Amino acid sequence: MADTKQSLYEHVRQGAQEADVFAAVKIDERGVCCEADGSAEPAFYRVYEEEGDIWIALETEDRWLSGSIEADLVNTGDKLDELLEEEIIDLGDDRAVVEFEHFRSPEKVYVFRSKLSVPLSSPDAASRALIWLLGYETVFRDLGDMSEDEDD
Predict the structure, then answer these.
(1) Judging by beta carbons within 10 Å of its beta carbon (0-12, 13-18, 19+), is residue 28 exposed, middle or buried?
(2) Looking at the domain assignment, is residue 54 inside a domain?
(3) By three-state DSSP, how is residue 48 classified?
């Protein structure tokens, strides 16, 4: 399983770098970490494995950034799971079923995350994880203060 996980991380890292939409991309002790480009405060997109499931996440320690994303969704009436699912399907995963969790971790990190709808053992897990990561970036880029130069 470690080889499968490392292969997935390497595929996602390479694809994320090639997409050229992140400020920085690396593999760390938790998985793939992609720094949001242009965010008003530090935020990171992540792909990681937890108990055999693959998770795609946006994480920030900044309460105001998290709140600005929530406020945008409330003000527009958009449902985050629907926005993500539409974008992920548009990017090529037509079998995507997206649900998300939003919480503050014990480490005081604000997390928006979704479980990939296939397990780590699936032959297309790596390609689908990359699609979901890019879908997350596309959707969140336009929410709240994720774009520093956005006029209020």
Answers:
(1) exposed
(2) yes
(3) strand
- Residue 150 falls within a domain, yes or no? no
Burial readout 32-41 (b: 16 or more C-beta within 10 A, e: otherwise):
bbbebbebbb
Give the CATH number, domain containing residue 125: 3.30.1460
User: How confident is the model over 40-62, as pLDDT tens digits?
Assistant: 899 999 999 998 899 999 999 99
Is residue 46 helix, strand or coil?
Answer: strand
Q: What is the pTM of this model?
A: 0.93
Domain that holds residue 86: 2-141
Q: How far apart are CA 18 and CA 9, in angstroms?
A: 14
**Would 118 be classed as within a structural domain?**
yes
* 78 part of a folded domain: yes
Distance CA(53)–CA(58), nearest Å, equals 16
Which regions of the chain are under pLDDT 70?
1, 149-152
Query: Distance (Å, rounded) from C-alpha 40 to C-alpha 28?
Result: 23
